[in-house]
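To whoever is on call:

I kicked off a structure prediction for a single chain this morning and the downstream step that reads the tokens threw a length-mismatch warning. I double-checked the sequence; it's 472 residues and nothing unusual in it as far as I can see. Pasting both halves so you can look.
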Amino acid sequence: MLLLLASAASAHVKWFETYEVAAEPVPISTTLSLPWFWLGLVLVLFFFVATTLLERRTPGLAATRGLDAVTGPLREHADAFLVAVLAAFFIALFAVGGTYLTPELKTDSGLVPWAQLVIALLVIPRRARPLAALAIVLLWAVTLRDYDLFHLLDYLALGLGLAGYLLLAGLPDGRWHERRFAVLRWGIALALIWSSMEKFMYPRWFLPLLEEKPFLAFGIPFGPYTTMAGVAEFALGFGLLWTPLVRRLSALALFVLMFAAVYPFGRVDLIGHATILAALLVILADPVRGESLEVTPRDRRATLFVPLGLAAALAVTMLSYAGMHRLIYHEVGGGLATLLRPESLRPDRFAAGPAPGAFWRGEHYHGRSGAAGDARATAAMMAAMDRMHRAMNRTRLGGDIDQDFIHLMIPHHMSAVEMARVYLENGRDPRLRRLAENIIASQRAEIEELNSRRRRPSPTVLERTPSPHEGH
């Protein structure tokens, strides 16, 4: 059941729906309070414990022999298979044009497609593969001109995994060369573990997708479905770092789920996940077993380490995700802010507006229409106005007209942004929706400008308190 719940998560939601990386993530405490989160972890622990217990016994040895028999040809030709997929992937990006390394990251540069064609040519000769690895890293770095660092962390581990494989694959035979598949596996695992946090921190991104394709949820409510899908993706990514049988079965499950997503989501999903699908098949084949860079003992202690390892990985990932977001969007300013979040500081990036967020504000999700929905939305806008008035009334004016103007206008603009977001979540008039999008873009840019001119700490806080229509 848990594996089935990951099916919609197998499609990268940001390829198909609107999102706002700079938006505040759901607090970790909220995720930890969800019963479905803990149920998912219990199922995961059962799978890991059972597999590690049986791995060195008759059932586990039989499963290993069966996997070896099926994947034998791929194990013998793993490098040729991966190189062919990587070359085809970068040729496809060249043919489509207008993207950096993935369907989501758009670019107007005419040079980027050609750079990706060069990468496709470099991966074929063994001696040129380290150059292809360097080109991938440089292309990711160039993407920082247009996209926030936090946004690109989704692709950093994957890119480093692919680049690490190509670098080591181009070296002469030896110990470092034999570690190429292990480095690739670590990159895939860390990429999946990191991206799984979106299901916990930004579940609202998935609501429009599930509303459009309700069959993906198997009739399960949005909240439990999204939560358990996140647990499944995190757990299977973690499984790629564990014992041989656990990681091979995790790779098999991930491949089935991701490949199943190709039918409902089409060629974009197939091309975008081609490198991950190929890497999962290689992990399933397990070609080089002496240099697997395992993090767990190769004996029965692996079973005892399962709860500790899973808890440590989950805690580190959640705290890193929330901490990186706070650092990039709240702690840094000035020139460093321009470097780390150019996407968010560009007003036109907010034109799409956020995805529905009512579900994770504590409300039941009711869709975008209906008199009851309109009444709730109106109450939410009035609550935003009330918070603005309270914040402005608490402002301690210092007699400096410039600074007083700044500290009064910031909560005013924040309220406008929140009201516009509420309208985008519920409103239907196309002209008003465009106006709301423009309000978000202009007010966010002006808030940044006002903050940059502030000479003393803000005496106001536009706190978030429950509106009259929230709660159960």
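Update from on-call: the warning came from a stale cache, not from the record. Cleared it. Sanity check on the structure: Residues 4-334 form one domain.
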